[in-house]
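User: I'm putting together notes for a lab meeting next week and I want to include a structural view of one of the chains we've been expressing. I don't have a solved structure, so I'd like a prediction I can at least talk through. The sequence is below, exactly as it appears in our construct file.
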Amino acid sequence: MDKISRDNKGLSLVELIAAIAIMGILGMSVFFGMQLVAGHAGKEMAKTVESLTQKSRTYCMGRREAKVEFNFDATSGWSAKETFTNVKSGTTDVETTEYTTTNIGEADVKVFDVSSGSETQLSAFSFEFNRSDGSLRNYNGSPATKNVVIEIRNGGKTYQLKIERMTGKINVDAIN
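Assistant: Thanks for the context. Below is the predicted structure for the 176-residue chain, given as structure tokens.
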């Protein structure tokens, strides 16, 4: 009869536990890394919308009229267009300047109006501010009658942009 060779050892229980622990640590680091990446496009778009809207509000105070429009295209994502109209004092001359910013948000970023309590998905939205005090004058081409609340969603993350009608104050908060 053949003797069983002692050189043919398998994995010991300690080695098996160590291998499982290492795989668990690697799996957790991948999971947490994915959580950090998920929603990044939404966060960047929320920051950009806040920045461009605040810039528009600031520029309009005094002698300019300002409007900022955000538009969605299924292939290229979100873009922004800023329009500044300057009426030269003492004349009827009007000088209009437009700036277009493309790729402010990826195509998978969703935007919702939640101002009225129910949510409506948006493919375009715009803001106009009063020259005298910076308050919100128009939202989507209509007179602003209440505060505006917009949610920007991506990868399970939600960012809420709030604009106060009376003061034009703009805040962005992370919901989750």
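A couple of points you could mention at the meeting. The radius of gyration is 26 Å. The chain has a mean pLDDT of 84.

User: Perfect, that's what I needed.
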